[in-house]
Design a protein that fits this description.
single chain; 123 residues; mainly beta; seven-stranded mixed beta sheet; four-stranded antiparallel beta sheet; 0% helix; globular
């Protein structure tokens, strides 16, 4: 599986961005996730989605502001980010793993496939 993110940019606080992650290969019965990482800090899970049934999970810090979704026909994962805050500034990564469990988990060590990242800066 190859993952390629896009959509990162610099925006003002309160603004919105939509990140995309194009996935190659089969994506059925996979956990897809967005992570983010600031310099010098650990990578943290932002949102996950189970491609089998669309079950989603969000970090408390982004609930109500971010939405993870998938376009199964195009094999694209999205992260719609609204009401952005300076604290959301980070490199955002798309990740994937095969799973038969719809409870995906948000620990980076679970995921074997990663994109190169896309930078989001909120000022």
């Amino acid at each position: 599986v190859q993952l390629v993110e896009s959509g990162g940019a610099s925006v003002q606080a309160g603004g919105s961005l939509r990140l995309s992650c194009a996935a190659s290969g089969a994506t059925t019965r996979r956990c897809m996730a967005w992570f983010r990482q600031e310099p010098g800090k650990e990578r943290e899970g932002v949102a996950t989605i189970y491609t089998g049934d669309g079950a989603t999970h969000y970090a408390d810090s982004v609930k109500g502001r971010f939405t993870i979704s998938q376009d199964s026909a195009k094999n694209i994962l999205y992260l719609q980010m609204n009401s952005l805050k300076p604290g959301d500034s980070a490199m955002y990564y798309c990740a994937a793993r095969t799973s038969i469990d719809r409870n995906c988990g948000s620990w980076p060590s679970l995921y074997g496939f990663w994109g190169q990242g896309t930078q989001v800066t909120v000022s």
